[in-house]
Please model this.
Amino acid sequence: MNKKLMTLLSVVLVVCLALSACATAATTDTATTEAEATEATETEATEATPEEAVAAVDNSGKTIAILMQSVADDFIATVERTAEARAKELGYNTVFYDAKNDAATQASTIQDMITQGVDAIMLCPVDAAALSDSVLALNEAGIPVALVDRIVEEGNYVAAVESDNVECGYQGAVQIAEAAKAAGIDIADLKVLELQGDLSSTSGLQRHEGFMKGAEELGLNVVSSLPTYWETDTAYNAALDAFQANPDLNAVFLASDGVMADAVINALEQLNLLAKVGEPNHIIITAVDGTPAAIEHIKNGYMDATIAQDAITMARTAIDQLDSCLNGTVAIGANQHLALPPTIGTIANIDSKDLWANNLE
Model:
């Protein structure tokens, strides 16, 4: 009897041990499965975002040359600074050269960049015709180029990023008419001075064409159109000469407030002709660029409107296009023309963040 009991207990013990082993194995398998699932989830959760993927591209050792026609005014200086910051953000080395509005200097610099073997160039050409040969040389060397603010007559480029300069000029005329209406001045009584940029640059030519188109449509009497060649001193002297020769001028359009606004306001002050909006004998002033100086002049009542280009978007877009080309997603000769619409700034919206100058740090 005792032997049978012992045998039975042994069988029960073996069965229990077997069941225990099965339970442990099942627990281990479940834990392993859960760990694998957790690991997979964590892997999915840390997948790079598109921004992180761009940042992860190794651009170290590559150089983008930033070649500006000038950096003498806030608009074009902001384009240069923003482009340099964006290129460095993407991991590129940068070099910067200021042509000081000299086409020969800029052409020589481009040849130097070809010799040095830079990887890409952002170019603001001094002269549409004179710099065409340089762009053709870049094409032959296989160096991508993005144009900003203006274009060239010949040669291929990744992208040309500029404002709609014809529209900028056109809006300059429209805003003169709007300011005259607000002041109770009949359009027929307007006598307008146009201070041009440089008609050898596409931006200067197109703004002039747009302004004259608007003036004709609106019936503005443009008494005088004078070139300034994007030079502040020339603008100052042109304003003095124009108002002395035509003392009944009562409106001015400036192709660039960054270059000309301070100069013209100083000239009017010297001639004892400076008056604020709403005051008798106020001279209407509209201009292209939307620089910080223009914002202040509008706030102070001496300017009526600025037709703001977007310096920040222009620069970042040009660098991004070069980055896409260097990383194989945009063709070196894509010849994209990216025209940015202007934003009108008046006293009604002068603090708006839509105006690029209000976004500077």
